[in-house]
Design brief:
single chain; about 170 residues; alpha+beta; PH-domain like; 2 domains; four-stranded antiparallel sheet; three-stranded antiparallel sheet; 5 helices; about 50% helix
Length: about 170
């Protein structure tokens, strides 16, 4: 049984799709890392207040403000870098041409005027439905995708996801 679809790769918003996969598949420690980092800063601050040490009052006030400012700067720079990275990835020439996707017993195939890709089902570890389409994972956080625009309806997406999962399960 062969299932075929056609769409532009740029129809899949990679940043949102990756965010969906992170929420579904990442461990809780990874998802809540920012809260844990800020909590650690406040715990260190509380510990410095609780311990009997001769620390001047202005150091106790400025230390957490400085640490939080550095943390916020780091977060802002990281988010800015990610936004640039994803916009460049999203608008690459390869992703703006019509692409034909195919799933059969022999594997997954992508073809366009610019590229050809064929992977056996042994290369995949899972198939996940995201808000942007179907993600075929080859590793945690690394995936090939079929955008929602390739499917005529939500049922077609569900069918394709079930088909991919069956093919992957048969080859693991």
């Amino acid at each position: 049984m062969t299932v075929q679809f056609s769409a532009k790769l740029s129809d899949f918003n990679v940043q949102k799709g990756l965010s969906d996969l992170t929420q579904k598949r990442a461990p809780w420690l990874y998802r809540y890392r920012l809260i844990m980092m800020i909590g650690s800063i406040f715990a260190l601050y509380a510990l410095s207040i609780a311990l009997p040490a001769p620390i001047s009052q202005w150091v106790m006030i400025l230390f957490p403000i400085l640490i939080i400012a550095i943390l916020l700067l780091f977060i802002w720079l990281t988010l800015r870098w990610r936004r640039r990275l994803f916009s460049g990835f999203q608008n690459a020439k390869l992703r703006t041409v019509e692409t034909r996707f195919s799933m059969s017993e022999s594997g997954y195939t992508e073809e366009s005027a610019l590229h050809q890709l064929k992977l056996n089902w042994d290369a995949f570890i899972a198939a996940e439905k995201t808000s942007q389409g179907l993600a075929l994972l080859i590793a945690e956080g690394e995936f090939y995708f079929i955008p929602n625009s390739a499917f005529e309806s939500a049922e077609d997406l569900e069918t394709a996801c079930a088909t991919a999962r069956n093919f992957i399960a048969a080859h693991t």
